[in-house]
Amino acid sequence: MTSTSSVPAASPPDSRSALRRSLGEWRIGLVAWRLIVLQAAHPAVAAGMDRYSTYRAHPWRRIQHTVDSGARLFSAGPEERRLEVARLARTHRRIHGTDDAGRPYTAEDPEVRAWVMVTLYEAITAMHELSGKRLRPAELDDLYDEFRDVCAALEIPDEVLPATAADVPPYLERHVREVLEYGDVVRHLLFGILREAPAPRRIGRLAPAWPLLRVAAARTLSSLTVADLPPAWHERFGTRRTRPAAALSWAVHRGVRHVMTRLPEHLRYRHRPSPTADGRPAPRRTPARPASRPRTVDSRRARLEAFFHQVLDQTGDGRVDSADLQAMVHNVCWQLELPVEREDVLYAAFETWWQQLRTAMDADGDGTVDCEEFVSAMLAGVDRDPAYLEHGLVPAVRALFRAADADGGGHLCADEYRVLFGGSRVHPAELNDGFRQLDTDGDGRISEEEFVTAFADFFTARTDAVAGAALLGRP
């Protein structure tokens, strides 16, 4: 389920804003995983995450989206907050269903939304308390007043929120004892996700060592998170705050506080990247990867397997269903900020593509498509029928193009292409290279036919010497 919590990126600290100052400190990251675990323990949040979230397959992208959302809610101006509230409302209206126990859930439930937000406020207070420097009652009141202002912007009813800062601890304890569940999603967050997460882009040349690094990181994060969970959690679910874990928590939180409070503000707080001329955050500079020579063997299977794992399997469970394609559309809509009616067109096109995939590829009839089913059926289909892709993929790609064509001019300019395929998260050299390859006539823009042809070539060309081969990055 989409969350507005975790670790929002902050503007330079505002001395008048207790909320911005607390969220802006780097050390808020120490309680971020604890926050996510508490949120995911709510059965409705867990069901939404299990069904719709991309956190398993794309944890770093999911975190980045959450960071961006938090920045716009808590640190930006009124117009950016208004746009973010509208975007979250569009996202939440699509997250609903029935969980494995037969209980209906919806992301629009006011009590669920209140729980997600209150845990963010509680995480701030926990950050201070665990570090040995509790906030005074007056400071808690100021912090909670600011927090309630954000909840009001999100249209969360007052009656489902704790009335005052003093009411938050009993609210939290009551939910832990009466509402929360220690299910599979929580166990995976605590003990599984980092042991299988892909290497984050930011570690650069350390990526080859990631399989070893993540073992140590996972063990440390699990111990710290379990130790930091509230006492009511341990009483309810029988987890233990062991002495080594308690010592780790004491040393980490207090040590980081003592270090951070002695640093200058530009090192203590996170700052947004300076915007570019068009108002977007400046892209992060990383070394561009050298292009390799095109292969002469049939490379379709490798490309299709990569497409399945990197693009289709959004939920990371090794199988694809309607929720995965909805997650793809959600990611696109997040980038493009489409109005509801244009979002609906895109969702409908991708649902049609899913129905074509299910009908043609679900060989065992279980309602999902695994990687081998996808690759085998796709290769057989494109070899048998030149128009095979016209039945599902091509209409979805055309809808994608028209959604990205912000001015309706029938072409994608470089800026529209960058927004669609990565924005600030992808190195500009890679985006520029992809744009040039798709712009086959060299006129400085990509037509709808060039766009569709590139996708078709990705699925059908036997070599990588085609523009479409670069859709997932340089081959």
TrEMBL record:
Pfam families: EF-hand_5, EF-hand_7, MPAB_Lcp_cat. It comes from the Bacteria. Residues 299-335, 360-384, 426-461 form the EF-hand domain. PANTHER family: BLR2777 PROTEIN, ER-BOUND OXYGENASE MPAB_MPAB'_RUBBER OXYGENASE CATALYTIC DOMAIN-CONTAINING PROTEIN. This is Uncharacterized protein (DUF2236 family)/Ca2+-binding EF-hand superfamily protein. It comes from Kitasatospora paracochleata. Residues 265-297 are annotated as: Disordered.
